[in-house]
Amino acid sequence: MAQLISDRRDVDFVLHEQVGTVEYEKFAEFDKRTIDLIVTEARNLAIKEILPTQKLGDEEGCTLENGAVKVPESFHRAYKIFKEGEWLAMTDDPDWGGQGMPKTVALAASEYMIGANPSFMLYAGMTHGAARLVESFGTKEQKELYLENMFSGKWGGTMLLTESDAGSDVGALITTATKNDDGTYSIKGTKIFISSGDNDLVENIIHPVLARIDGAPVGTKGISLFLVPKYRVNDDGSLGDFNNVECIGLEEKMGIHGNATATLALGQKGESIGTLLGEENKGMSAMFVMMNEARAFVGLQGFSVASASYMYALDYAKSRIQGRHMLAGKDRGYENVRIIEHPDVRRQLLTMKAYIDGMRSLLYYNAKCLDIADGTEDENEKAEYSGLAEVLTPIIKGYITDRALEVCSHGVQVYGGYGYTKDFPVEQLMRDSRIFLIYEGTNGIQAIDLMGRKLNMMGGKVFENYLSKIKETIANAAKIEGVEVLAEKVDRVMVKFEKLVEEIKERSKAGNVLNVFSFAHPFLEVTGDLSVAWMLLWRASVAAPKLLKKAGSLEKETIAEKAPKNKDVAFYAGQVQTAQFFINKIIPATMGKMDAVFEGDTSVEDMAEVSFGSK
Ligand SMILES: Cc1cc2nc3c(=O)[nH]c(=O)nc-3n(C[C@H](O)[C@H](O)[C@H](O)COP(=O)(O)OP(=O)(O)OC[C@H]3O[C@@H](n4cnc5c(N)ncnc54)[C@H](O)[C@@H]3O)c2cc1C
Question: What CATH number is given for 156-281 in this structure?
Answer without folding.
Answer: 2.40.110.20
